[in-house]
TrEMBL record:
Pfam families: Queuosine_synth
Cited function: Transfers and isomerizes the ribose moiety from AdoMet to the 7-aminomethyl group of 7-deazaguanine (preQ1-tRNA) to give epoxyqueuosine (oQ-tRNA).
UniProt similarity note: Belongs to the QueA family.
NCBIfam families found in the cross-reference section: PRK00147.1, queA
Transmembrane segments: none
Pathway(s) per entry: tRNA modification; tRNA-queuosine biosynthesis
Protein name per its UniProtKB record: S-adenosylmethionine:tRNA ribosyltransferase-isomerase
Domain of life: Bacteria
GO biological process: tRNA queuosine(34) biosynthetic process
Species per Swiss-Prot/TrEMBL record: Acinetobacter boissieri
Keywords: Cytoplasm, Isomerase, Queuosine biosynthesis, S-adenosyl-L-methionine, Transferase
InterPro entries for this protein: QueA (IPR003699), QueA_dom1 (IPR042118), QueA_dom2 (IPR042119), QueA_sf (IPR036100)
EC assignment: 2.4.99.17
Molecular-function annotations in GO: S-adenosylmethionine:tRNA ribosyltransferase-isomerase activity
Length: 346
């Protein structure tokens, strides 16, 4: 399967660089089980789900992971904390005019917090902070909003680039689970009143989610690693819902990858699981758990576009995207949403 099979033309003006005033005010494009698409508002999700269904949400929280600083020589650097190993050691991306060597000292913040480069692990730098990492990020960090926003993080992002249900104890992502940004407290309450329940998984989103696929044959692509946790309580909720004939709706590709990773770790049978996942879902993948997916519109030739194409089909997805462009839907993290049903061939 070729990378170019997942390309489409997107006018720049359709990239949503700021959120709408209200979280749930987005539009919703529904691709049904036959592959047909239908226009809705996001609040219509209440009518498109059934009593007894289950929404699975990712409760991670985004760190203020981007730090600006300098080298000992005064040259500017930028550090993006990808993953914390412990309170002082992290795996990071570093932007600098020259790649810093092991032993190099970098400095961030007004009080020149020292960050020492220890070495490399794959494409990441291993660094040691002289002060607790989360304290440094809280004082000097900026939210790592997506590169396609083409702007610096602003005050509005502090609230709107986080979900309303994030768990503060799970502060470790460098990108938001953006499908969940459409849910506000009132909409969640309305879903609850209809008898639609929620369950949580955790996947700490890494910066690799924005990296392009660099191989022409997508089967040769190697996914970045991300930590996730699927707790026993969520497994039990999913089993109960499935047993009574209701559906499991994953909110976002991160929740999907977490749940499907837990199933793959147990020969296709869902069970509690914690660990690093590099699961790559593309057309031909057989879903073990997920019935439907709420997601945003994704970048051309991205692994996320490949994932949604696996649930419906590449042709259905690209046809829906062509419709979305024609109807001027808003794309990417702050954009509009989709509800995708698993394709049922007639």
């Amino acid at each position: 399967m070729q990378l170019s099979d997942f390309n489409f033309d997107l006018p720049d003006e359709l990239i949503a660089r700021y959120p709408l005033p209200e979280r749930s005010a987005s539009r919703l494009l529904h691709i049904d089980a036959t592959g047909q698409h239908h226009d809705h508002q996001f609040t219509d999700i209440i009518d498109l789900l059934n009593e007894g269904d289950l929404l699975v949400l990712n409760d991670t929280k985004v760190m203020k992971a981007r730090l600006k600083g300098k080298r000992a020589t005064g040259g500017a650097i930028e550090i993006l904390v990808e993953r914390m190993q412990d309170r002082h050691i992290a795996h990071c991306h570093i932007k600098s005019s020259n790649s810093p060597k092991a032993g190099a000292s970098l400095f961030v913040g007004e009080d020149n917090v020292e960050v020492t480069v220890q070495g490399r692990h794959e494409n990441l730098y291993i660094v040691e902070f002289s002060q607790p990492i989360l304290d440094v990020l809280d004082r000097y960090g900026k939210l790592p909003i997506p590169p396609y926003f083409n702007r610096e993080a602003e005050d509005i992002d502090t609230e709107r680039y986080q979900t309303v249900f994030n768990d503060p104890t799970k502060l470790a992502s460098v990108a938001a689970p953006t499908a969940s940004l459409h849910f506000d407290e009132q909409l969640l309450e309305n879903l609850k009143q209809k008898g639609i329940t929620t369950a949580f998984v955790t996947l700490h989103v890494g910066a690799g989610t924005f990296l392009p696929v660099r191989t022409d044959h997508i089967e040769n692509h190697i996914m970045h690693s991300e930590w996730c946790d699927v707790p026993q309580s969520t497994v039990e909720q999913i089993r109960t819902v499935k047993a009574r004939g209701n559906q499991v709706i994953s909110v976002g590709t991160t929740a999907t990858r977490a749940i499907e990773s837990a199933a793959q770790a147990h020969q296709g049978q869902l069970a509690a699981w914690t660990g690093d996942t590099q699961i790559f879902i593309y057309p031909g993948y057989q879903f073990c758990v997920i019935d439907r997916l709420i997601t945003n519109f994704h970048l051309p030739e991205s692994t996320l576009l490949m994932l949604v194409s696996a649930l419906s089909s590449k042709d259905h997805i690209l046809n829906a995207y062509q419709h979305a462009v024609a109807e001027k839907y808003r794309f990417f993290s702050y954009g509009d949403a989709m509800l995708i049903d698993q394709y049922q061939a007639v």
